[in-house]
Specification:
The complex is a heterodimer. Chain A has 13 helices and no strands. In chain A, about 65% of the residues lie in helices and about 0% in strands. In chain A, helix 2 (about 45-60) packs parallel to helix 5 and helix 7 packs across helix 8. By secondary structure, chain B is α/β, with parallel strands linked by helices. Helices cover about 40% and strands about 25% of the residues of chain B. The chains are: A mainly alpha, B alpha/beta.
Chain lengths: ~325, ~280
């Protein structure tokens, strides 16, 4: 096979891997939007907060140590222990569930039957609150997240693919990051679990029921508030997974919360109400921007990855506003 | 009066046994701001009967049903259910008490299949922990199968086997109404509320629905309270009828008694009101 062909395949594979990472973030948005009609602006900050909390627990950081030191004049910062990754992840999950409960109890329950724009504003407030709260709790410094996920290029794939090139050509094999492979596997497991859960369990059906019709859901005995706590908990768990993957890839810092912006074009492509849509949308954006950068990028000066996704989303907004898989909105006049 | 006569008798006009009082509404008043939707209405529902609530448009029938299932909370009055006063509750808590309902403008879960829609009706009977559900282990799996059997029985009963897997949004109107009845029925309610079960149906569909309502009442012994506009149907299937007009009760009794009631005739013929 010619090296050009192999390079193209490599670009596509790497695009798919990046796409999976985008899809992970978009998934959190879809879950909440579907069941409660809220566009959760705080989803990205939730991922950042989850990652910060995880690092904090792992390294035995004392929460609010800056605040404690400032008030009491002490200089504490660490407990001096390390918690194994697995335990720290479970602890963080509990924190995200507690967070979901607090959001329902103190924010959403006061805004029942409000306009979507008001709920959206509330989530913006929530995002800024969480961002500040996370900094206060764990400090604003850039942290390294290491939960033992392998990283770096997979030598096995490199060795395997290097032989595929035709004789006498220069080809160094595919560079595929082990972290990306892990992320893809985790994302696939997550999506399968979520799909099975929503199809074959009582609570899963209740989630879909609430997404369809609130009154009817109430009439069969489903408590909307309980469902919202569950949905936000799941979104928190998805944020944790996204936070771990993105945090391990590029460090835990403020810019992590901005990956939420990349989820927007993914949602416009996939539709705000479809879980498969979030996945396919993520993959299309991932592959699209990598291929575009590889093929057209050099002609127009590169750095196309920054804007390609948004332009693609704009094109979709013009020709198919409901996305690939979203519900078409038909209003009767 | 006729009401007390019937309460004393222990059979319906067609000879079926009647149980004790299942629900009693005492002096219910419901206001929306300055508008009085229901004014000082009292009536009872007895175990095993088919109780119709009728009246012209805007009489407060749907409001009354919404009061019974907890969507609305009356400002005044008491609701007694199974011999105890019911405090103000959320609709989902009332569903747990065994009160199921259908809606005037079909409220199904459009994206879900017939089977899944009816399965949601079993929600109050499924209490495996979330953890057990996530692991699909032990209680959750067992419950899913047991409840699935009940759902299949209702599907057979309503003769909708052929549309089990169809998303309900694609079904014709009459079948959607039937699926909605199935979802309410599968909860094995003590009280089944039907809000215009035959609205918008053709003659044949109405006949089917009447038959199902009567069968439900006979086979499962379910107490039914229904709102319906089609007088022929109401008079045919109900044991007792309460008539509302402008939020007030103007008649209560067997279909024959109500038919002869002058206030009821006036309300339907549109005799001007004093107030």
């Amino acid at each position: 096979m010619s090296p050009e062909f192999l390079y193209t395949i490599e670009v596509i594979i790497n695009g798919l891997m990046t796409g999976v990472m985008y899809a992970l973030v978009a998934l959190g948005f879809v879950l909440i939007f579907k069941s409660s009609g809220i566009f959760n602006y705080a989803q990205g900050v939730m991922a950042l907060f989850a990652a910060m909390t995880l690092v904090g627990f792992q390294t035995g950081q004392i929460p609010f140590s800056h605040l404690i030191n400032a008030v009491l004049g002490t200089s504490v910062h660490h407990f001096g222990w390390h918690i194994p990754s697995f335990v720290a992840i479970l602890m963080t999950l509990l924190v995200m569930i507690a967070f979901a409960w607090l959001v329902e109890r103190y924010v959403l329950s006061h805004l029942v039957n409000q306009e979507p724009i008001i709920l959206f504003m509330a989530t913006i407030g929530l995002a800024y609150f969480m961002e500040g709260f996370g900094d206060l709790m764990w400090g604003a410094d850039i942290k390294k997240l290491d939960v033992g996920i392998p990283s770096g290029g997979s030598l096995w794939i490199e060795d395997l693919t290097i032989k595929w090139a035709a004789e006498g050509t220069t080809f160094y094999g595919w560079y595929i990051d082990k972290l990306d492979i892990t992320a893809a596997i985790v994302a696939i497991i997550l999506v399968i679990t979520l799909t099975l859960f929503s199809q074959y369990t009582a609570t899963g059906r209740a989630l879909r029921a609430v997404a369809d019709d609130h009154q009817a859901a109430l009439s069969v005995g489903i408590s909307l508030r309980a469902i919202w706590v569950i949905v936000w908990s799941i979104a928190g768990a998805v944020a944790l997974v996204a936070g771990i993957m993105w945090g391990a890839k590029s460090g835990v810092q403020f810019s992590l919360s901005l990956i939420a912006l990349k989820a927007l074009p993914v949602l416009m492509l996939g539709g705000f109400t479809s879980i498969p849509g979030a996945i396919v949308g993520g993959l299309i954006i991932g592959v699209g921007e990598k291929l575009f950068e590889y093929s057209i990028g050099p002609m127009i000066g590169g750095a196309t990855e920054n804007w390609f996704a948004y332009v693609l989303a704009l094109v979709f907004l013009v020709f198919r506003p409901q996305g690939l898989f979203g519900d078409r909105i038909i209003e009767r006049v | 009066m006729s009401e007390s006569q019937l309460a004393a008798a222990d059979t319906t006009p067609d000879g079926r046994p009647l149980g004790g009082t299942l629900m009693e509404m005492k002096n219910i008043t419901l206001r929306f701001g300055g508008v009085v939707a229901i004014k000082d209405i009292s009536f009872d529902i007895r175990e095993g009967e088919i109780r119709a609530i009728i009246g012209p448009n805007g009489a407060g029938k749907s409001s009354m049903l919404n009061v019974i299932n907890g969507f609305y909370h009356p400002q005044e009055g008491e609701i007694w259910y199974r011999g105890a006063r019911r405090k103000a509750m959320k609709p989902y808590q009332i569903a747990k008490l065994g009160i199921a309902r259908t809606f005037q403008n079909i409220a199904l879960f459009k994206g879900m299949s017939t089977l899944d829609n009816i399965m949601t009706g079993r929600f109050t009977h499924m209490n495996a922990s979330l953890f057990s559900q996530i692991l699909w282990h032990g209680k959750a799996a067992r419950e899913e199968n047991e409840n699935r059997e009940k759902v299949e029985r209702i599907i057979d009963f309503l003769e909708i086997q052929s549309i089990r897997k169809t998303p309900v949004g694609r079904l014709p109107y009459g079948l959607q109404k039937r699926v909605e009845l199935g979802r309410a029925l599968v909860a094995e309610p003590s009280l089944l509320l039907l809000d215009e079960p035959m609205a918008g149906m053709n003659v044949e569909e109405k006949e089917d629905m009447s038959r199902f309502i009567l069968d439900v009442n006979e086979e499962f012994g379910t107490t039914i309270a229904l709102i319906e506009h089609d007088m022929g149907v109401v008079m045919d299937i109900s044991d007792r009828v309460v008539v509302l007009d402008y939020g007030r009760k103007i008649g209560d009794g067997t279909p024959d008694e109500v038919r002869g009631n002058q206030a009821v005739i006036d309300a339907y013929l549109g005799v001007p009101h004093d107030d």
